[in-house]
Design brief:
heterodimer, A: mainly alpha, MetI-like fold, B: mainly alpha, 2 domains, 11 helices, flat
Chain lengths: 297, 320
């Protein structure tokens, strides 16, 4: 910072017409602004590039057959990934059935009963650490738990793996939703003589239902894009299957297997499947973020 | 609950009965939520225990040597994971070197009022969406779009700078550098979101004080705001590091899955996660145990990083 000295004129009076800022300080500011603005544009570029390339490559192959047909065997051209869409829905359904009850009740404890307690602190800590556990390790967990125990790869094992991925997302987002319900509403319910159970079930949860639904949808969208936990739990299946105890095809795993094999037709199917998956996930993510902006009370 | 009023005994009893069921239900519900909350903690511990106990045969057989040897030979059942540990650390380091300056810069840019709110919010949303893209889609994009785009640069580096060990091998698209670049893109949203949050949450007095002392906007940012939000920024970097180390699909599709240690960044390599993803399918019994052992190492690495990140971020929140 420039000293007051150099702003004194000969007679010792302060010259207020000269700026205290040296040109270097201004230039430094401008350079930093331009640099960080450039970084911001640079950060958006991959998103735009990925969405554009996936749309371009995927649209050329996408047709009604993509949703209704089985994938072609190597060498053949015609086909789709209908079985993988059904498979993804089944595995995600199992995952949601496991993780949503646990996650919602755990977050009810965090926001309604345990606020400020040591247990709640520990549970929140564990939730955050669980969110950081790599998805592939959730797969190893489900493998050593379900696949080893039941003796084979199965849709159920895939569901267990994805439920571990979903659980911390459900807990955190549901808790946020419950915390948005104003304290006065709870006090009013208690004041009318409701028990905690009645307050939670008939007042708090109905009020927070839209945000709980958003939380669950977000968690499903996130888990729906995961391939790593399914590689050695649900594995893959080239045919239609709805059997919970058999290997099952899912969109992300299909994309992975078809991306790394040297057949043009399969690679095109991988692009089309990637387009479907990306479109669903982006639409869900954008709409859920717009929805959570709305107030609930 | 005793009623003190003089109502008839019959009515009083039925009321008491009703109150009892309600209280019991209330108690049950309370303990149910406690149980499920603790279940979240239990699941975290269970993951460690389950992976650890399944890996136990491999830990007994290969011991600490597993961490220091470089052979991965399913035929002779000799396993060492040093190249994968090296690859995990190198690719994460490349990702951090790129993503930290960019991410903190973007966080600063979006926390200041350079842009009107109507433009800033969509940009923040777009950055969040990067985190939502499935990593297998990023991997697919990496194989067919990004690698052909990067290869000419790698060739240039090799032809002109091959005297630097970092670029000393013939360029390959599937390489440590490619994965590092992709990981940087994938962890940027984490760094930006949390760093920006901690910058925005700073008390206004700090900024006003610095401005009153005659600091310019950028002097305020660098000397006052960033130091004040430092723990939040460090926490975000640690979380991002954990994410980079555990990223699987992009790694398996882009790193080349080659079991070697080389100083060259444009040579193929492997990470722990890519090893598990690419080998598990064909693995026999003892190789599965070895893979679970490497999974345990990854779990311990990410666990340490995530716990540190949480502690740092919690501390920051308490100060605030």
């Amino acid at each position: 910072m420039a000293g007051a000295q150099d702003q004194m004129d000969a007679s010792g009076r302060l010259d207020l017409t000269r700026s205290a800022r040296s040109p270097f300080r201004n230039v430094f500011g401008i350079i930093m602004t331009v640099l960080t603005a450039g970084f911001t544009i640079l950060t958006i570029v991959p998103l735009v590039a990925i969405v554009y390339d996936v749309a371009r490559q995927g649209l050329s192959r996408l047709s009604l057959d993509s949703f209704t047909q089985l994938p072609p065997p190597p060498g053949l051209e015609e086909g789709g990934f209908g079985n993988a869409i059904v498979g993804s829905l089944i595995v995600l359904g199992i995952a949601a059935a496991i993780s949503v009850p646990i996650g919602v009740l755990a977050s009810v404890y965090l926001s309604e009963f345990g606020r400020g307690t040591k247990i709640a602190y520990g549970v929140k800590f564990a939730t955050n650490v669980l969110a950081g556990v790599p998805a592939i390790l959730c797969g190893l967990f489900a493998y050593s738990l379900v696949v080893v125990f039941t003796g084979g790869f199965s849709a159920f094992a895939g569901g267990v793996a994805l439920s571990v991925v979903m659980l911390p997302i459900v807990v955190r987002a549901t808790e946020e939703g419950l915390l948005l319900v104003p304290q006065e509403v709870r006090q009013a319910a208690i004041g009318l003589g409701a028990t905690r159970f009645q307050t939670v079930m008939r007042v708090v949860i109905p009020a927070a239902l839209p945000s709980i639904a958003t939380a669950v949808t977000l968690a499903v969208a996130r888990a729906g894009g995961e391939a790593a936990p399914l590689l050695f739990t649900a594995l893959n299946n080239n045919f239609w299957s709805t059997d919970l105890w058999q290997p099952i095809a899912t969109l992300p795993v299909l994309i992975y297997f078809y991306a790394i094999i040297p057949f043009k037709a399969q690679q095109e199917i991988a692009w089309a499947a990637a387009l479907v998956l990306l479109a669903i996930i982006l639409i869900v993510s954008i709409s859920s973020r717009l929805l959570t902006r709305q107030k609930i009370y | 609950m005793r009623s003190a009023t003089g109502e008839s005994p019959r009515q009083e009893r039925s009321l008491e009965k009703q109150v009892n069921t309600t209280t019991v239900l209330d108690r049950l519900f309370y303990w149910l939520t406690v149980a499920f909350a603790i279940a979240v903690v239990a699941i975290l511990l269970w993951i460690g225990f389950q992976i650890g106990s399944t890996a136990l045969p491999a830990i007994r057989t290969y011991g600490i040597q597993f961490l220091t040897t470089t052979t991965w030979d399913p035929v002779r059942n000799i396993y060492g994971a040093l190249p994968q540990i090296y690859g995990t650390l190198v690719t994460s380091a490349i990702a951090l070197i790129i993503a930290v300056p960019v991410g903190v810069g973007v966080a600063v840019f979006l926390s200041e009022n350079f842009l009107p709110n109507q433009i800033r919010t969509p940009i923040a949303l777009a950055i969040e969406l990067i985190a939502a893209i499935p990593s297998v889609v990023i991997g697919l994009w990496g194989i067919y779009i990004l690698i052909p785009f990067l290869l000419p640069f790698y060739r240039f580096l090799y032809e002109n700078f091959s005297w630097i060990p970092l670029f000393s091998t013939p360029p390959r698209g599937n390489s440590l550098l490619t994965l590092g670049i992709v990981l940087a893109v994938m962890i940027l949203p984490t760094i930006i979101a949390i760093s920006r949050g901690s910058l925005v949450a700073l008390p206004r007095d700090l900024r006003q004080g610095a401005m009153a002392m005659g600091a310019t906007r950028w002097e305020t940012i660098i000397r006052v705001l960033i130091p004040a939000a430092f723990s939040g920024i460090v926490g975000s970097i640690m979380l991002a590091l954990g994410r980079a180390m555990g990223e699987t699909m992009a790694a398996a599709m882009l790193v080349g899955n080659s079991n070697q240690i080389t100083p060259s960044l444009i040579a193929p390599g492997a990470t722990i996660a890519s090893l598990i993803a690419s080998q598990f399918g064909e693995a026999g019994r003892s190789q599965v145990a070895a893979l679970l052992y490497s999974g345990l190492i990854l779990l311990i690495l990410t666990f340490i990083v995530n716990v540190l990140a949480e502690i740092i971020i919690q501390k920051f929140q308490n100060v605030e």
